[in-house]
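Q: Now give one record:
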Amino acid sequence: MSDAAPPTDAPVAMLDLAGEVADHEAALLDAVTRVLRSGQFVGGPEVDAFEAAVAERLDVPHAVGVNSGTDALRIALEAAGIGPGDEVVTTPFSFIATAEAIARVGATPRFADVDPDTLNLDPTSVAARLTPRTRALLPVHLFGLPADMAALRDLAVAHDLFVLEDAAQAFGAHYPARCARCDGGPRCSAGSRDALAGRAVGALGHAAAFSFYPTKTLGAYGDAGMITTHDDAVADAARRLRVHGSTPTEKYRHEALGHNSRLDALQAAILRTKLAWVDDDRDARRRVAERYRAAFDGADDVTLPPHRPEHAYHQYTIRVPAGRRDAVAAALAAADLASARFYPIPLPDQPALAPYVVDATPPVAAEAATRVLSLPIHPRLGDDDVDRVARTVRTALRS
């Protein structure tokens, strides 16, 4: 957090990208200038270097840059052979891209419920959604908190399922030494726990999809995405699919219908530069979360997000009593304090997904959608601003 707090009546935004650019302007301009002088703007050495840096950081053999996080989801599913007639179990509480990608490859999204504490995919509910047509699990690391991957891994092994992490909100997060939900209890095998302990998000399943949209914990200054995977065949297929299904060894030979989803070299250079401070930014977000936790101490009508060292805090999302959220949001807006609702409409209730939905919205997700409110959190947020936001929320709830 910044040592110099702004005036106490200054507006507070959800994010401060202008401040980020100001703090790192020289390094960012060097990256952009390097690309401009190279004359190579799509693919090439900048993309190769960024892919290599991410693969090394996450300890995975393959990182495949694409145009967006949505493309990363869709191409990863296609590369794994998921298509018409298949079912993919996922969360009802996420951005539409999660289920949209499933529908776009011709598969059916099946919606399990979320855990009441973490709002991540509940493995018990997932098990109840499995059918003979289930081919994959698609958990989301919601708001930057890793899903219960050890339990999901056990289900995947038992039922021969492909696991694709939606890691769009969680670059920089790591899996805990103990299971997120059962704290190392008997419902989750010690083998799965030990295999994943301390590993980076993006290396916990067969493959993962990242978004580098500007608001993410690692954000480009435009759209960008990436697929990471341990699977050679998935990586090879993804590399072909991102360039119109082309054959790497023979120009203008296309073995499959693919996509135009190449990673921009300017964005790759910016992202590789930002890797140098992504951990510092994550730690700063965690300090903001600590401040919120202290500021909301004793507020029994506010449910705070799980306070865990593996959380990347892409969003700081509280829950307030049903029927009071709009009043709280209005009070924040009146004081020039930002807030957002992630997500007010569960995926099974989205009109665009109606032709693909076979499950009603599960109860925990349905209730969460009426109560969640995300508060400002970013590395440059001062303590005074955090206190103002928390105080405004508490006052609005008492009114």
User: Anything to note?
Assistant: The chain has two domains: 23-274, 278-398.
